[in-house]
Specification:
The complex is a heterodimer of chains A (99) and B (282). With 99 residues, chain A is mostly beta strands. Helix content of chain A is 4%, strand content 35%. The radius of gyration of chain A is 19 Å and the shape is flat. Chain B folds into two domains: 1-86, no CATH class; 90-280, no CATH class. Classes of the chains: A mainly beta (99), B alpha/beta (282).
Chain lengths: 99, 282
């Protein structure tokens, strides 16, 4: 494939990172709160929540980019965080707590 | 239908099981403040700093966290006892793809890019996995690959190989045309060059910025040197393995099918039912 991209990527300075994806849990929610229009058979977004391990061997550093979902979400999260955070403009009427 | 969540392991447990010393994790970077990205930083040692996007600490809904701030949607234990660094893109010396960028390790290997819209603190990451190849970790800049594919830069092809409706390693072929009638822009004749989806207003703090960010994601996605992976892109599992079984680095050397070309149209399998219903209606 020839490079027809208008994108200019930053120059190489001698370092790279190793990147791995981790399973940060799974979430299923109504697609209409995130994407539109509705397409038949795609009412639910049933998706993994990835976390990424980024290792820079030259610098001797490791970081995580995102952590997925906490295992203790049912006990540690506050009343506002459970679902409202997914919907910055407010919890849709039909979506309250989990099943 | 209400949202459901299933989390077998904390990410810290996966790391520990793979013999990674959590003390070696220098920082946790949150793409934004939503619970499907923030995990549980309290399980990491206090030497692990927490890096958050712009406008974070000034947002009373997210900082401080619960229960210190009873209405917060973050948890205070994530912040307690550790350095919490808020990124300031006003100091950024460079842009990539039009987005203000911070060279995190200051060696050109990993950039954090300001990518607002889904939330006001949203960032994405550009990781250099080899001299000239990159991963764009797109977090929630888009929630489905159909928000940034196809485009005029990467139109839906006449024939798609491997077929998104068959095994990714098969030599199957599928005509792109079967997906045209179900596309929102079919009547305009633009189905081959317009993404299937748009972000919904209810899921974006700033819909205008959210759409601007998606325009940039489209440009990254069109580059043969960049593999775009948004935070919930299950299609990568067709060709890439999760840690510790595999890594994403080296994606450009794998195949056939190549990871980038092999994965590009996999999301179309979500429309199988819609395609079948359309064909049945004829």
């Amino acid at each position: 494939m020839s490079n027809t991209s208008p994108l200019v990527l930053p120059p190489y300075k001698g370092s790279t990172v190793r990147v791995s994806a981790l399973d940060g849990g799974h979430i299923a929610l109504p697609a209409k709160f995130l994407i539109e229009p509705s397409i038949l058979g795609q009412d639910i977004l049933d998706v993994p929540a990835f976390s990424f391990l980024v290792e820079n061997h030259e610098a001797g550093k490791k970081i995580m980019f995102d952590l997925g979902i906490m295992k203790a979400w049912e006990t540690k999260l506050g009343p506002k965080s459970e679902m409202s955070c997914l919907f910055p403009t407010g919890i849709p009427d039909r979506l309250s707590k989990r099943d | 239908m209400q949202a459901t969540i299933n989390v077998p392991f904390d990410v810290s447990e996966i790391l520990t099981s793979a013999s990674v010393d959590l003390l070696s994790i220098n920082a946790i970077i949150w793409s934004h403040h939503h619970i499907d990205h923030t995990g549980d930083p309290s399980l990491f040692p206090s030497t692990t700093s927490l890096v958050v996007g712009p406008n974070f600490k000034s947002n009373p809904d997210i900082y401080p966290g619960y229960p210190t701030n009873p209405g917060a949607i973050t948890v205070q234990s994530a912040f307690d006892g550790r350095e919490v660094i808020e990124l300031d893109f006003n100091d950024a010396q460079l842009t990539v793809g039009g987005l203000r960028a911070i060279d995190w390790f200051q060696d050109g290997s990993f950039y954090l890019l300001e990518a607002l819209g889904h939330t006001n603190d949203h960032i994405v990451a550009l990781a250099r996995t080899s001299e000239d190849k990159f991963l764009l970790l797109g977090a929630d800049a888009a929630h489905h690959c159909g928000e940034f594919r196809p485009t005029p830069l990467v139109p839906l092809p006449e024939s798609i190989t491997p077929s998104p409706l068959e095994d990714v390693r098969s030599s199957s072929v599928c005509p792109g045309a079967i997906f045209e009638p179900i596309h929102r822009s079919a009547s305009l004749g633009a189905a081959r060059t317009t993404p299937f989806y748009e972000p919904a207003a209810v899921g974006a703090t700033d819909l205008v910025k959210c759409k601007e960010t998606i325009e940039v994601i489209k440009v990254f996605d069109a580059s043969p040197d960049v593999l775009v992976i948004v935070g919930h892109d299950y299609t990568i599992l067709d060709l890439l393995e999760l840690y510790p079984k595999g890594e994403l680095t080296g994606w450009e050397k794998r195949g056939p099918p190549s990871v980038k070309e092999g994965l590009r149209w996999r999301f179309l399998r979500d429309f199988k039912k819609a395609v079948e219903a359309n064909q049945g209606a004829k």
